[in-house]
Amino acid sequence: MSTFVQRVASAANLNEHSVNPNSHWVNLKGSWTTNIVLIIVFRLVFGVLPWSTPELCWTLTNLSYCLFQYIMFHGIIGTPFEVNQGAYDNLTLWEQMDNGEQYTPTKKFLTVVPIVVFLLSTHYTYYDVPTFIINFTAVLIVLIAKLPAFHRVRFFGINMGQNDYN
Amino acid sequence: MASFSAASPPDLLLAATLEDDDGSQRGLLRTAWDFSFRMVLRYIKNSYKDDPFRTFLEVCLIGFIIWYMTKQKYNIGNNEIELSEKEIDELVDDWKPEPLVPELTDFERETLDKAALLDGPNGTKVRLASGNSKALLNFASYNFLGFIDNPDFEKRAIETLRKYGVGSCGPPGFYGTLDVHMELEKHLAAFVGHSAAILYSQAFTTILSVIPCFSKRGDIIVADEAVNFSLQQAIALSRSKVYWYKHNDMADLERVLQDVNKQLTGRRGKNALPRKFIVTEGLFHNTGDISPLKDLVELKHRYKFRIILDESLSFGVLGKRGAGLTDHFNVDPHEVDLLIGALSYAIGASGGFCCADKDLVEHQRLSGLGYCFSASMPGILAVAASDAIRALESNPEGHFASMRENASLLQSLLKRIPGLQVEGALESPLMHIRLTPETLVRMKRSGGAWTKTDIDRVLAELVEEAQKDGVFLTRAMYVDEHERLLPNSSIRLCVSCSHTRKDIEKCAHAIKNAVSRVTSKKR
């Protein structure tokens, strides 16, 4: 049981005034816009492929966007450059955002967008069951990772990082 | 009006605008609202598709969106208690602020009032600024090689002052590097026998810059318990996991190294190989001991650690040439991964340096905080340091022989004084003297116990008595609350090579008299 789900240690500074240079950019207007533009680009690219049907197109868009969100926000821990003597080394980007504060505007936006993409994709795939299941699973994984109850929780020892703090 | 299922959006819009007579802005807005409303209704109607379960899931998702959007933001970390205005007022009225500068205790006030003020340079003989201008023999300054009162160095320094001015006016990376700095760095590397050297402008902050530069959060440091204050602060600053071993106890060190390696065996991935360092001093400031470098190197190779050696006091003091601990034990300097030295003790200039492999030194040029964000040392001091090292290279025997003779002579004389215990290695010119516990017990009236302040007071009296006999001593001072292992109170003696045999004997005699005078009084 202990390796199935574990909570990871964090030495992060939860002071509301400190700015995390690694995660601050997600709060900017340009990041939000880029999310929308990215979805549109995915849709157009997949639509242009010669063998694509609307179902395949939208399913691929949904899956790509969920994959993008997973890799970006939940799949990688730490910072690419040295920040604060390695305080954020065990945290994913989602956990680093806004100093661990939950329900901030950015987090709300990033939670709602996959759901909206999912609803659009099921509408345009004419609601057949196999694609629905695939899309729903992808959205479910991405949504569960964002819930406050799963802050710093790790499954199967993935992304455990280093738990040795003095 | 067209029915939902058959109409396409443009038709709907056209029909809506045709109906509206005036075609004003308000009308267009209303048609847009109608259009989108009907779009949503059409979507919902289309989406049901005889699958109640799936529709239920989608409705749940939409419900989740609404719930999530309406949540207030909160921080998991700190849950602040909400206080009412009245409670806040009460708390504010109750609060009595502590003074910005705390009240001094009596002993602290005495120490402050009696702090020695020197008139002139702190060479072998000093004059106090207060009262009688009798010259005192200086056994308090770290003037081990007598460079402070060397007239040739003074002359060269004044010439350099005319050429380079006083300060360097900038960090080394930003127009603060002079040619004398680069020469001194090459000179130091060649003198010590290592690959490269980098200069820092202050000796105390050199180690504070070097250790956090290489050892970060998640790395492992194994340090000697008796390291000095700047090393303790450096280790704390680095945020690494630190293990302490008993002072100079190689068996304990081996046990700690084995412990650490055992803890690391289960790790996988990126965390499997953290950086591991052994941190110790060459000549310990708080005890006067020398660390056994040969054993350290052997342990380092066996357990795969790296050595950071703080040679602040041993550079220019130990070894045949004076190159420090590696010279003293005839160990290849490259075995010490980071060799930190100071130019402010024996060499008589100011600042510090770090000798290491070329890559490690280059890394410090961008990541060593003391190097990047402090002004570089003034040109005069770089030239003075260079001259001092050149003097050591040309005439090692002249300096070290007399310094070591003086040191062993003083130690042997002091050991003969009853009631005194001497701490320090045999060859070390820095030693600590304390009153033996038996003497202290004898001095106390029955039923009395010694507090640290009492012992400090006794030592302060000892220093005063020695001053009356013409010898200038000092107590070893610490920032008591911040030391990890506060050493017992002591008087720290520094022997110089420019002391004559008579000076040493005078010092021992003065201490003997002071001890007998001080211990004769019962407290």
From TrEMBL, chain A:
Membrane topology: Multi-pass membrane protein
Cellular-component GO terms for this entry: endoplasmic reticulum membrane
InterPro entries: ORMDL
Pfam families membership: ORMDL
Transmembrane segments: 32-51, 109-126, 132-150
Keywords: Membrane, Transmembrane, Transmembrane helix
Subcellular compartments: Membrane
Primary residence: membrane
Protein name: Sphingolipid homeostasis protein orm1
Organism this protein belongs to: Coemansia spiralis
TrEMBL record, chain B:
Keyword Acyltransferase: yes
Pathway(s) per entry: Sphingolipid metabolism; Lipid metabolism; sphingolipid metabolism
Enzyme class: transferase
Enzyme Commission (EC) number: 2.3.1.50
Biological processes annotated in GO: ceramide biosynthetic process; sphingosine biosynthetic process
Keyword GTP-binding among record annotations: no
Coiled-coil region list: none
The Aminotransferase class I/classII large domain, residue ranges: 136-511
GO CC annotation terms, alphabetical: endoplasmic reticulum; membrane
Cofactor: pyridoxal 5'-phosphate
Entry keywords, A to Z: Acyltransferase, Lipid metabolism, Pyridoxal phosphate, Sphingolipid metabolism, Transferase
GO MF, one annotated term: serine C-palmitoyltransferase activity
Family (UniProt): Belongs to the class-II pyridoxal-phosphate-dependent aminotransferase family.
Protein name (record): serine C-palmitoyltransferase
Organism, scientific name: Coemansia spiralis
